[in-house]
Amino acid sequence: MSSVHSLLALAAQVDPTDNPVADFSKTPVWLSLVKALLLFVFLLLNTLIVIWFERRVIGRMQQRPGPNRTGPFGLLQTLADGVKLALKEDLTPKNADKFVFILAPAFFGAMAFVSFAIIPLGPMVSMFGHQTPLQLTDLPVAVLLVLAVAGVGAYGVVLAGWSSGSTYPLLGGLRSSAQIISYEIAMGLSLVAVFMFSGSMSTSQIVAAQKDRWFILPCIVSFVIYVITMVGETNRLPFDLAEGEGELTGGFHTEYSSLKFAMFFLAEYVNMFTVSALATTVFLGGWQAPPGIASINDGMFNHGYWGLLWFFLKLWSFMFFFVWLRGALPRTRYDQFMHFGWKFLIPVTIVWVVAVAFIQAANEGWLGDNTLSLGGRSYYTSLLVIIGLLVVGVLAATWIWDGRQAAKAEAREPEVPDEIDPFAGGYPVPPLPGQRLVEPGTAPATRNQEVLRG
Questions:
Q1: What's the gap between Cα 3 and its chain centre?
Q2: Distances (CA, A) of 173 to 148, 162, 345, 377
Q3: CA 176, CA 157: separation in Å to the nearest integer?
Q4: Does the structure show a pLDDT above 80 at 102?
Q5: Which is more confidently placed, 425 or 197?
Q6: Residue 108 belongs to a domain
Q7: Choice between 388 and 279, residue whose per-residue pLDDT is larger
Q8: DSSP calls for 51-96
Q9: Are 113 and 270 in contact (CB under 8 A)?
Q10: 5 within some domain
Q11: Exposure pattern of 298-318 as b/e (b: 16+ CB <10 Å)?
Q12: Is the dihedral of CA 240, 244, 250, 252 positive or negative?
């Protein structure tokens, strides 16, 4: 019972309503509109750049130049492709639900932009003569807003697949919805440890809590799990199973063309920026400078627009990670990916969150004497890292053992015979590779054989 009480006390301490958020009291409405416009332009320009960047980097990885004709270094190639895509014929399938067919890409694209509104890009700055945070807005439960918007965005994929009136988009929509929902669970649980350390779900307060130490160190397990889930959440290689060309010919947006397809394409890359920005905010100190640089000249590099530079560098390190994954790893199998999520990632996050809760409670003296604080903060962080690695090791061993048991069970299945009777089941069945038909007269004729012979 004492452990239950400690967890309840910890939950009470993390109540987000007790933590102040960024101060927007001196920000007029027109300045908020300007910041929203600048944020929209920022995402559009970064999308154009990252598409060019992706093609160039993967080209180098595959020993080819990539786009290098349109504009200097091929920088205008993405813009040219966007204009070409917009001028293509806009087709709507005959059996499609036209209203939902048009609504789905607009809905999916809008949800991609909403999440970035709560990301702090920098500290308080002077903008047009007003002191305002480099952030559009903030909430006591801002991180939960990102997860909620990501969940609502799944409706765009489902509606796109269903409204197309075609088989492959429907299968792609079902795949994508199951994948997004599954990996949102692990993603949400991976952030619980961050809430415990920061005592808030506000993005500005989470960044402020990392002034002395980034959360990637004590929450290394949460960070690794989040990085895996953010790739699955955005349907990016090697987890782009909802768009698998080999079996779904494009997935949920197979029937889309022109600007409707461009909306899905744009939303995918904006979602990459959103999950990368959230990872930067909750694990890498947000807009704050690295520890060594932050201590120079009394933290001069943590003031003003310097924060935008550090945030931009951290954000693009994740974008390079996305590109590197696409160029280096093959696509996984859908059932393996779903098993990995449900049987490994979710159990790891649950065990990790419980372990962090107990260690946090013990460090605060709720479970007895302050035995864990004897070694100081460094001992506390090291203990969390060691326990996290042990938890991951034990669950990984369990998952591997489960896979081997399944392989042994599959190996015990009856072998396919070398000879088959093609009419044994009532219908002519061709032999599998390596099989041969039973010679005439060596097996009793079935009623169907007699009918066919008659």
A1: 33
A2: 19, 7, 23, 47
A3: 7
A4: yes
A5: 197
A6: yes
A7: 279
A8: HHHHHHHHHHHTTS--S-SSSGGGTTHHHHHHHHHHTS-----TTS
A9: yes
A10: no
A11: eeebbeeebbbebbbebbbeb
A12: negative
What's the confidence (pLDDT) of residue 249? 67
**Do 352 and 289 belong to one domain?**
no
Q: Give the single-character DSSP code of 374.
A: T
**In terms of domains, do 30 and 76 share one?**
yes
384 and 289 belong to one structural domain: no
* Token pair recorded at residue 198: 């920061």
Nearest-angstrom CA–CA distance, 191 and 353:
9
CB atoms within 10 A of CB 334: 17
Residue type, 406: A
Cα–Cα distance between 350 and 217 in angstroms, integer? 19
| Angstrom distance (rounded) from CA 190 to CA 218 | 13
**Long-range own/partner contacts, residues 154-157 (CB < 8 A, 24 or more apart):** 154/180, 154/181, 155/107, 156/104, 156/105, 156/107, 156/108, 156/109, 156/111, 156/267, 157/104, 157/108, 157/242, 157/252
**7, pLDDT greater than 60:** no
Residue 438 within any structural domain of the chain: no
Do 179 and 286 have their domain in common? yes
The first and second tokens of residue 368, run together, are 């007895």
Number of domains in the chain: 2
- What contacts 231, CB < 8 A, 6 or more positions away? 238, 239, 322, 325
Confidence of residue 411 (pLDDT cuts 50, 70, 90): low
Backbone φ and ψ for 370, nearest 5 degrees, come out as -80, 65
Query: Which residues form the domain of 369?
Result: 333-409
Residues 350 and 286 occupy one common structural domain: no
d(CA 146, CA 157): 17
Tell me what pLDDT residue 320 has: 92
Q: Are 219 and 193 in contact (CB under 8 A)?
A: yes
Q: What is the pLDDT of residues 119-151, one digit of tens each?
A: 888 888 888 877 888 888 888 888 888 888 877
Q: Residue 444 pLDDT more than 50?
A: no
**What is the pLDDT at residue 446?**
46
CA distances from residue 261 to 114, 115, 267, 329 in whole angstroms, order as listed = 20, 21, 10, 25
Q: Cβ distance 104 to 159 under 8 Å?
A: yes
Q: Is the pTM of this model over 0.90?
A: no
